[in-house]
Amino acid sequence: MSFPPFQRHRLAVCSATLLLTSALGLAAGPATAADSPQVKHYQIASSALEDALNQFGREAGILLSYDPSLVAGRRAPALRGDFSVAEGLQYLLRGSGLTLVHQGDNNYTLSKAQATGDADGTATLPAMVVSGAAVSSTTEGNNSYTTEVTSSSTGLDLSIRDTPQSVTVVTRQRMDDQNLTSISQVLDQVVGIEANSTSALGSDGISYMSRGFSVENYLVDGVPRPTGIYGFTEETADMIAYDRIEVVRGASGLMSGMGSPAASVNLVRKRTTATPQVQINLQGGAWDMYRGEVDVSGPLLDSGRLRGRLAAAYQENDSFVDREHHEQQALFGVLEADLSDSTLLSAGFEYQDFNNQGASRGGLPLFYSDGSYADLSRSTNSGTDWSDFTRDSLNLFARLEHQLSDRWQLKIQAEHKSGGYDESLGYNYARWIDKQTGAGGTLYMTRWAADQEITAFNASLQGSFDWLGQEHQLLFSAFHADYANEGDNYPGWYNGTMPVSLPNSFEFYETGYWPKPDLSATGGTFGSDVKTTAYAAAMRLNPTNRVHLLLGARVSDWQQDDWTKTAAGAKTTTPVTNENGVVTPYAGLVLDLTEQWSTYASYTAIFEPQNEQDISGNTLQPLEGNNYELGLKGELMDGRLNATLSVFQLQQENLAVSLGPGFVTPNGAQAYRAEAGAESEGFELELAGELAEGWQVAGGFARTTTENSTGDHINRYIPDNTFKLFTTYEWDQLLQGLTVGGNLRWQDEAVAEDAGPNGEDFVQDSLFLVDLLAKYRVNEQLSLALNLNNAFDKTYYSGMQYIGRYGEPRNLVASARWQF
């Protein structure tokens, strides 16, 4: 007997599945996909829906039969993590218009989706919309140091290999393994990102550099924060609320439009889970550090159509620096509701509260007045005992995701964030002091405080279409935000009331004692109002299976007005920036060389309104330039390992360069000048993911040189060459349950130019830092870990320019983590 092609294909699929099921002896008892408690781990790459279903059926041990015409031409998202049969299949079928029909025992078929059941009365599984972020992008539970999908570069959901820029994703697993609980700790570990921390966390002396320039672009779930306005960045954020951190090095014009070409940092929040889970993490460590975390998630209704998550963290610790005391708390909650089989509504809040008491805005002198290097203790504190930095915020957010079809999705986001900062500053600033008498320091005192608000809306339409026999991706987005900043005027050194010469800095360092002056508001207020609107489009064209062209542009309006108001209420408004219709183009080309390797090239323009002022108080002209990048990317080990080699060049005009200590604007801020023709170039090599079963790795090498228009090297206090590598290995036989790991960081020499009394340069030699990890899984619920940081107790500066701040000495953190 012969069969037509259609029937032959259908029978082949069913027969192959039956043979495999028989061979595995999976004639199990009468469990159903809807009620089976069995959860298995899956690693299924994004592929044709038919291939994904067949792979899932083999691994789950089920018999899945269907008419091939139902799945023809459809694709399934990547499936990574722990799922029951119902969760896994429903996710693979998401947006396909198909549903799963249980035929008894382990037998299932597919049919077109119906609201309640099939006409013959056969029960169908209730539709489940798994969290709107694809499992392939959500990193929680994937036990990996990489992810398959990121959208932080272009807005399109692309694999790291298909993204024509350098992207680092710090996953939830890596944050847990390295004990990275704050965004500052995360950025310290990212390839190509270097900290320049000349003062305590929470002050304006904390900065991060990438490709020679300051990192100023922060986004949360893709919603950008304004650049250049103090207090709006996320530099003190606790990681309890976040699934992963995505860092795009270079300009990301399609996402932020107007922003620094250094890098953008996107903090991506956690989502609810389809199954109940409870996580408790307790930590204790050096300098009386105590931290507790609780994270509860799961369905709130039997149907699973309403899910919730609540997470909280509290941390308190002293520091290796005398008198510093840090306290931080964070609370995060989200609800997700399946309004229909294709519509997901989520809403939540995020609260962050940060306080650093006894901390200093200034670092320590690098030189004594005789020109010799200063040898102050690492515990030396240049701040008063009453100094403190406080930041708090409450963010309310909502998101609606609607699957218009199996190929198009609409997403609408809204958020309102309110909070602010309050800093009482008292610190001894000394570029150099007398080695014998301690003379040469000046005490600066003031208060900075402001209330801040963000109201933002973002809408995007993303999908795919067929043209000339190929599938292509398209994205449209619209964004609007209002940023407001308002604060009182306080007395300070910039109006000449409080700079005090210290007769002996050594005595001050011992106690930090100085009477706190009256820092009450002096009358009058100041502020900034920013309104920005942007429209963007991005397209990924696939002329052939191996050639992929990305084209896009963002059109932005940006209006910023600064204002002051006297105590009598007279208001003066000063326009700072009024830019309309600024076009930021983007172009990228990806060429698939083999099944695993691709080469790419990309270009984007740079345009960033600046808040820095010259010595006369005039705002610098916007930063403009171009970003070019070439690279090679590999997706290895069935997508579990990503490798990137990139070569880049940045060209900028009007780069803000500090005039140095003593040069301030009329309002007391640091004065700058505009550097013409600054250029940065270099290369980066990065590896992230699984080298072999149980062996994870993340890290790489970066080289950057930055020069001005005359060819002089600038920003030499940031090392040109850096290397970072973190790796873990989980034993599976002899020492089952044990994971060991290590972290190596190396940098070449860094130079603080003209830091000495006679114009001497301060040189920090090349440096190796080693961290160690040991983790033991006692059982399925409990694991214990030890993190030893700076294992060889190296003395070094974590930031330096005209002054410096030491990096952390050797310290140990112990953790106990329960998961239910």
Automatic annotation (TrEMBL):
Q: How does it sit in the membrane?
A: Multi-pass membrane protein
User: Where this protein primarily resides, as one coarse class?
Assistant: membrane
The family annotation for this protein states: Belongs to the TonB-dependent receptor family.
Q: Which PROSITE patterns match?
A: TONB_DEPENDENT_REC_3
Compartments reported by the entry: Cell outer membrane
* InterPro entries the record matches: Beta-barrel_TonB (IPR000531), Beta-barrel_TonB_sf (IPR036942), Plug_dom (IPR012910), Plug_dom_sf (IPR037066), Secretin/TonB_short_N (IPR011662), TonB-dep_rcpt-like (IPR039426), TonB_sidphr_rcpt (IPR010105)
Q: What's this protein's name?
A: TonB-dependent siderophore receptor
Signal peptide span per the entry?
Answer: 1-33
